[in-house]
Amino acid sequence: MDSTxxxxxxxxxxxxxxxxxxELKAMKFLCRDLLSISQLDKADSGLxxxxxxxxQGFLDVSDCFIVAELLYCIKQFRLLNRMKxxxxxxxxxxxxxxKARVSSYRPCWMPLLKWRRKDCWKNVTQGC
Length: 128
Known about the structure:
Helix content is 62%, strand content 0%. The chain contains nine helices and no strands. The chain is globular and about 35 Å long.
């Protein structure tokens, strides 16, 4: 493993360690068009998800933008900064044809995922 691989792996481990279970679920949802259900089920951490993305060729040392895109979509801008990206840079990059890997409709569904949680649904049915 050369120093570039080491730096990427260190970064991915750091990002994974700072993801909560809800963020991991959201990232897995965003990757449903990229990875098989079995790959998503096996990914029990951010690192597992990143490894699956590497196996499918979506993530490597020369192009780790998919991680920035996922962090942008789940609004984890603090972790995005660790990749030396900011919100505006990712937004600008996503305007280039073919740059985005996440299906454009998936982020639109993100707010609705919160309603699937029992506690949110309970609030809706009881009138908050």
